[in-house]
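Q: Convert this sequence to structure tokens.
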Amino acid sequence: MALAALMLAPAAQASGPSGGGGGSSSSVVSLACTPAIALTNTTGYFRTYAAVWTNFTVTPCPTGGPGTWVLTYRNNVTGLIDFRQTGSFLQTNSSFTNVVDDDFGPFATPYTVTLRVTDARGVQTSQSASVTTRASRLNG
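A:
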């Protein structure tokens, strides 16, 4: 009920129970540009383990400034994050491409790979892709 009231009358709720309003301001982040992401996964083997290679390209906004990225591999069987990689970028006027590999995964396991990008303005975007590691190639 309180959530509905907040959604219907945010200005009244934001001013507190005594009314009056005013006294504070907030900055508004322009979302005119959101960083763009392209994400693909390839499966294979590394020695005797299953592997996933993730290729991604990020195109930052010209006015977004530097930022960070976080790539996670969520095991859909356990619900846990099995692998996590982070990085940063300085470019604000050109794309950059990266390859991250998870070389020690379990066989025949479904994953959700998610890339989250946050620029200096705090604008965040993400993209996810499903992938299943290959079955064991060892017999017996």
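The longest strand covers residues 36-46.
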